[in-house]
Automatic annotation (TrEMBL):
Xref: PANTHER family: NAD(P)-BINDING ROSSMANN-FOLD SUPERFAMILY PROTEIN (PTHR43242:SF1)
InterPro entries: NAD(P)-bd_dom_sf, RmlD-like-bd
Domain of life: Bacteria
Entries under Pfam families matching the protein: RmlD_sub_bind
Gene3D superfamilies: NAD(P)-binding Rossmann-like Domain
Domain RmlD-like substrate binding: 53-291
Species whose genome carries this gene: Actinoallomurus liliacearum
Full protein name: RmlD-like substrate binding domain-containing protein
């Protein structure tokens, strides 16, 4: 289906790249969108989350929110005009790969048509799209930026359509990420780390494919890269992945060992006939360009053992009631 895209290119930093007054519109308010918004705010900038539904209070972290359905071209124009951002980060769903495979038209409407609408609304504003390893066939151990794309499923096809639309503007960076993980107790579809920990804590078996490979990357690392890259107005294609290629089975055992929850509960299965059947066997990435980018110095992604250590305090703490949605921002 063609080449994966050109290398990441620099276009200079914002005049006030230290953060003062820079406003980023984050399209998507899940656990990754919330972490990106929180990182922007911690650096002295301002972030407005935009999504169809209000974010959970914990993930929103007090950030402003606007309602937005990216399938609506007029809504995209109106929200971008009202927010008046300096840049956009696009990280909205649906990202449930099995659901997308069963609902390919809806997936393409959200990602493909959504990208068309956002590109038209953004004009020449810098845009960072968080994309996926599912744009590749998964027949090789790992994929770099210059490798040929051939989506493995409906989700990959929809994200590739979004990539191409935004790259055609000349103002976008596509950041393809491998499997993102973190502690996400309020998510509509909690990530693999969260579901593993919950099952292990409850003494339930975790059936994990030993023939499905990932390069898992901690959510905070994705947030850090996204924030730096959009501030420096990079364009092109860049890959972000964790430093290890692991099967889901091996990773689940590392999670169990790191949290002292009993590796014997993790059982190896094949991905055929499971929710992972439509995923590429090798959902693994590496970067051919990241080491050359000065803004990423000191931001290298951690391995899964360090990631588990950082998440241990929240992952092992008693869970309270689910967070209620954050109130809608009154700043229109």
């Amino acid at each position: 289906m063609g080449r994966a895209g050109g290398p990441c290119r620099g276009r200079g930093a914002y005049p006030d790249a230290g953060g003062g007054g820079v406003l980023t519109m984050v399209v998507g308010s899940g656990y990754l969108g919330g972490r990106i918004g929180a990182r922007i705010r911690a650096l002295g900038g301002r972030a407005v989350l935009c999504s169809r539904r209000p974010p959970a209070a914990r993930s929103a972290a007090g950030l402003e929110w606007r309602e937005l359905d990216v399938r609506d071209a007029r809504a995209c124009r109106d929200v971008v005009r009202g927010v008046a951002p300096d840049s956009l980060v696009i990280v909205h769903g649906p990202s449930d790969i099995t659901w997308c495979e069963e609902h390919p038209r809806e997936a393409m409407a959200a990602h493909g048509t959504g990208a068309v609408n956002l590109a038209a609304a953004a004009g020449r504003l810098p845009v960072l799209l968080v994309s996926t390893d599912n744009v590749f066939a998964g027949t090789r151990d790992s994929y770099g930026e210059s490798d040929e794309v051939s989506p493995a499923n409906a989700y990959g096809r929809a994200k590739l359509a979004a990539e191409r639309t935004l790259l055609d503007t000349g103002a976008a960076l596509v950041l393809r990420v491998s499997l993102v993980y973190g502690w996400d107790p309020d998510g509509h579809r909690p990530n693999y780390f969260t579901t593993c920990v919950r099952s292990l804590r409850a003494g339930r078996a975790v059936e994990a494919p030993d023939d499905h490979w990932n390069t898992p990357v901690l959510v905070d690392d994705v947030a850090a890269w996204s924030t730096e890259l959009v501030r420096t107005r990079r364009t092109g294609v860049l890959h972000l992945a964790g430093p290890e290629r692991l099967s889901r089975y091996a990773w689940a055992r590392r999670i169990a060992a790191g949290l002292g929850l009993g590796e014997d509960l993790v059982r190896a299965v094949g991905k055929a006939g499971t929710a992972y059947a439509c995923r590429p066997s090798n959902a693994c990435l590496h970067s051919e360009h990241a080491a050359d980018l000065p803004e990423l110095a000191g931001l290298w992604p951690v391995d899964v053992d360090e990631g588990t250590r950082r998440l241990a305090a929240v992952a092992l703490a008693p869970e309270g009631p689910p967070a209620v949605p954050a109130p809608r921002s009154v700043e229109e």
